[in-house]
Each structure stands twice: as structure tokens, then as C-alpha cells.
Write a structure and sequence with these properties.
The complex is a heterodimer.
Chain A (H helix, E strand, L loop, with lengths): L1 H12 L4 E2 L1 H10 L7 E4 L2 H11 L3 E5 L13 E5 L2 H22 L9 E5 L5 E10 L3 E8 L2 H4 L4 E5 L4 H10 L17 H17 L3 E11 L6 E3 L2 E5 L11
Helix pairs in contact in A: 3-4, 6-7
Chain B lengths: L6 H4 L2 H4 L3 E5 L8 H10 L4 E5 L5 E2 L2 E2 L13 E4 L6 H10 L4 E4 L9 H17 L2 E3 L5 E4 L3 E2 L8 E8 L2 H13 L4 E6 L8 H10 L5 E6 L5 H12 L4 E5 L13 H5 L2 H11 L3 E2 L3 H13 L7 E6 L2 H13 L3 E2 L4 H10 L10 E2 L6 H13 L5 E7 L10 H13 L5 E6 L1 H13 L4 E2 L2 H18 L8
Amino acid sequence: MKAAKKIFETALAEGRTFILENEAKDIMKGYGIGVPAYDTAKSADEAVTKARKIGYPVVLKILSKDILHKSDAGGVKVNLKDDSEVRKAFQEIMESARKYGSEKGIQVDLSRGVLISDFADQGTEVIIGVTRDPQFGHALMFGLGGIFVEVLKDVTFRLIPMTESDAREMVGEIKAAKILDGVRGQPPRDVDALVNVIMSISKMVKENPEIIELDCNPTFVYDKGKGALVVDARILIEGTKPKESSAH
Amino acid sequence: MAISRTDSTRDMDPFFSPHAVALVGASADPKKLGNSIMANLVKSSVRVYPISRTPGRVMGVETYSSLTQLPETVDLVIVAVDAKNCPGLIPDIRRSGARCAVVVSGGFSETGSEGTRLEESLVRAARDSKVRLIGPNCVGVLNTRLFNGTFTIMPERGNIAFVSQSGALGGASIYTTQARRIGLSKFASIGNAADIEIGEVLDYFREDADSTVIAVYIEGIKEGRKLYESLRNASREKPVVVLKGGRSESGNTAVKSHTGSLAVSTAVFTGMLRQAGCVTAPTLDTLFELCKIFDYQPLPKGRNVCIITNTGGAGVLAADAVSDLGLTMSTLSQKTRHEISSAFSPLASVDNPIDLLATGARWEYRVATEQILRDSSVDMLLEICVVPTFAGMTQVEHAEGLLEGVRAAGVQKPVVGVWLAGSVGKPGKDLLESNRIPCYDDPSLAALCLARAADYAQFRRPSVRDTS
């Protein structure tokens, strides 16, 4: 996908190997992956206009080439319900980012402003990630979010590229797979939509081997027929041109 | 099975099917590896030329001072001399007519930087002379139908091809297969894999008509993607049972995000094996037991298991293991239940597990086996027997009943046995195994083998597998 290449070029030209969240979501959308409605805003006024267009409640996140871990820099505000909350959140985020910069002794670039995103309804939380294994090249990881991945390490891997049956096997073979069938009276989750996200990520990485790490964390999976959304997307790329031998 | 053979595998034929073999370092000294290899070669059906600095004969065979002095061309050279002398031998190996060499000698990259340099010069010399190498630092290769080019014993003849990265473990495993009467077709220990790696041996075994199953012991690997391709291609032709030893060091030190930190190579390796359709063996013990079920029995059509037992307790253990491993206990048809209940004691259980009670003997095992195998709700049969030492029953009659039932049913469904009671059970167990019914000491191992067979059968079913 040409748009992805252009985004990667811009990033490298700015001296960063991480892709800003709006850019990551642009790439995801280009591969047909569902994401909550989003936009960007450079001022509090613009943030309010965009928030109204998306519809409340919304989330604001800092967009800066100097900040990889947005939460650490106080750069994330969630569940904002009206204009005044958005205005206040925008000011606070800029304030925190400046403070974060002065603590680190760097001048944080704030010219890109923030990402405004629809505050997505809670779904079953899963994580889809990509790593580049030193022996096997790109591998895709799948697991349930939260304690399943943090504590129980209940995750499974496949090499990229993969087939749809590989994706279905992954979803079925984690220990917590039953949760996706629907437990405690819940209807089953939309596994088909989840499989589509996995397959799209596999395709994206196959076509863009300069991606060295990727996290869709969290991804929300909704009731059967209601789809899945990648709520937070992070992409890291290689600093120099990928070696021919690196994978496929 | 019509498997087309490729040029690259044909080039490897002399490793496993040589006509004439030269052994460099043949020795009359029983403390030398060159002595053990020579002893195995003279018992083989190939012509052997010992190369030795000592003139005369070794084990009755005239020795030659150099590979260039041989009376005919050879197609395989086995090298068992000091590491430092190995690279210089390569041009002579080529002159002897051989394009294949097995370097058994140790003292290469496994010993440090000097050995690594020696190994590099060995590989360079081999590439220059267009000689392919197995080893160095390995046990060697053998073909149970032709010759033993290793310094370990000749295993029983069979259909399992075995490639091992570890020489010692590979050698030890051969003793295990012999003790358990598991037959091998071919064996290669690849040692340091300086030239030929596991992948190429897998490609060879995939095309080998004498091998129905491939057993693999892997530790570290160099080219992961190539290994994956070879494993996947082989799995599409025949079962590949893999035991992975050691955790490969995670070279991925730059862990920048969540996914990276979870990608310990072992987890990626495990996923890769599943993706390739491999059968994973959790332990050394299970490696060949898994091979056995694939070699002896047909693949199941589904995941439904029926258990026949003469002891309630072992039946419960087996049923637990069956459900733990994601298999399903069959619900028997009304017809089957009726046939069994009218044939047996009213106390016998006609629900799965079928309990034939301690009085169940040859006739009961035969009838139950035949009826159950004919039931379309049953894909696999697990039969348990605690061989009783009372009521005048013979030690093998239960096993005989099982075999008669299998023959009478005449269907292609996997059947495994769990014959308990130690030495009392052994004659029955031996009878079953010699009739190619795998027989285990533990219900959970039997269930594991059935589960892996069902998983592999699912991988091979074309309807659920898209091509990539």
C-alpha cells in the first residue's frame, strides 16, 4: 500500500521509528480494519468542533514525534462528555506534554495537537501483535487482553503470512478461547470479524516488511455480527532499509 | 504413495543408499570411533574400503593408505580422524568419486573459536570441491535396509525416519527404539550442521518411499524460515513428530513493546510447528510412541473415542485424559448398545466407557471390539485390560479377542491398547504390538497419541485447509 510507505518515509525523515496513532489508524483503515471514528485537532476550538462531529463521549490523545508512550506523558484523556471537558482536556494534555519535555530536557513538538477518537463501547478485549523473531522473521501474536496476556501469558503465535485456517486455529487454541464463545449468558463474540482483523494485519505486514513491531492493544470484539474495533494501534518500523533475508 | 523426487534429494541418495563406502580413520583399536564404525560397516551390505595409515587389514578387510588409491570409485566417505586433518581430506574425497561425506569427528565449532575456524575451512573446502557434508561432530547415518554408517547399534528395520540434531541423544534414542521394538527406516545425526541442515534431511525423508513417519529432534536452528518450509512440506505428505530441546536464546534484545516481550522464541517456535502441521512430542518418551501410532494405525476420521475396559478405574482415567485433550467420548448408537447389552452380563456397562467387568475375557473383548468399531459414532478405539490372574484365563486371551474383533469388523479406524498388570500383561502387550496395535502402560499416553492423530488428521483433511 502506497499510503503506508509514504507515512513510513515521513516518520523516518522526522527521525522517528514509531508511527503516530492517526497514521497507524490510516494504514489500518486502508487494510479494511475497523477503528473507532477519529480525527486530529491542533487547537482546543478545533478539538471541540471535531468532537461534536464524532459525537460524545470522546477520547483525546497527544500526537507528537517526541512522545511514544502517551500515557506516561499524561497525554491521554478518556470518556470526555461535552465541549468543556474537551477544552479542558486539550489544555491539560498540552501542559503535561510540556512538563514531560522539560523533565526529559527536550523540546516536545506540540504542533500536531491531538487525536480525537470516539470512546468505543467496551467489548471483549483482545490483543493482536506482531514481532520480528530473530530466527523466523515476522510472527503474529494473538491473546485475550488484560490479565490473560499480562499474567497468564495465554497467547499464541503464527508466522506471517498465514492462512485463514491458521487464524481460526489461533483464536481457538488459547486457553481462554471459551470466553469468545460467550460466557455467563453473553452471546458469542464476532470471531469472523476478529479473524478478518488478524488476516488483514498479516497482509499489512507481508506488504510492509519494514514494520518490526505492531500492537493492536486493545482490540474490542463485539457480539456476533457486530464486528471488532482496533482501539489503540502502535506500529514501530525499522530505521534503515530491511535486509532481503529478514523474512519472506 | 507417488512422491516426485527432486534433483537435490537425488544428490543426497549416497548418504543413505551408497554402493561403496570408504572409511577414513578405520582402526583396529577398539577405543577409536573408527573401530566401531568399521565393525558396523563390515556387517552391512555395501562394499567397504578402510583408509588407514597402518598397512594390513582391519577386521579382515585390506586397508588403503589414501582415498586416491582405491580400486573403484566410492560414493560415500565417512571421516573419523582428528578435526585438524579433515579440511585437507576434501579434495581427495572428491577424487575418490564421492560427492557425499559424513564427518563424524568432533573438535569443531562446538569447542570454541579455533574449532569454528576449522569448521569454516572444512565447509569452504567442501563447497569448492562440490562435496556435500553431514556433520561434523555427529553419530553418522544409517539405513536399516542397507548399512550402518554410525558408531551406534543398528536399530530394528521399520518405517520411521529419524533426524536428530544431538548425536548422543540420537544414539541413545536408537537403543530405546530397540528396547521397545520400534523399527526405523533411516537415521541421520546432523551434528553441527555445518553444511546440510535438518531441512534438507526432512526434504529427503519426505520423498523416501521407505519412510511413513518422520521423527525429529531439534535444538537450535539457523534458518528458521527454511526449516518451516521443509516441515510444512513434509507434514503434507506424512506425519512429522517433533521434539524440541532447549529454549533458543531470544536474540531479540530490543524489546520495545508488549508483543516483543512475549515473543520468547519458544512460543514462536511452538506456533510455527502447529502452522506447519507438525505433531509435537512433549517428552523424549513420547516421541517414538507417537511415531508408532502413525506408523501402525490409520488416521481417524474424527475426534470421537470409545473406551473398552475390564476395570472401571482405568476406564475413568482414560475418559478423563480423552476429554482433557480435546477429544470427545462417543455416544453409541441404540443398535450397538442393544447388541452389547444382550450379549453380556446385565452388570456390564453399555455406556462409554464399556465395562466388560473382570470376568470379561476373549469372547467379550472380541464381540465388544467388533460391535464398537462398526458403530459410526466411533472414530477411534482405546482398549484397556488389566490382565487377570484368576478363573483360568490365559495371559494373552484378551489381546487375542481384541485382534479377532478388529479383523471381524474390517474397518479402518485406529485402535490402541493399554495393557496393565506389568509382567502379567506383557505377553498380551507383545502380541498386540507385533500385530501393529500400539500398546501403552498409561491411559493418558494412549489418549495423547489418539489426540495427536486426530489433530494431524484434521490438518491433512483438504476441506478445512486452504492453500498458501
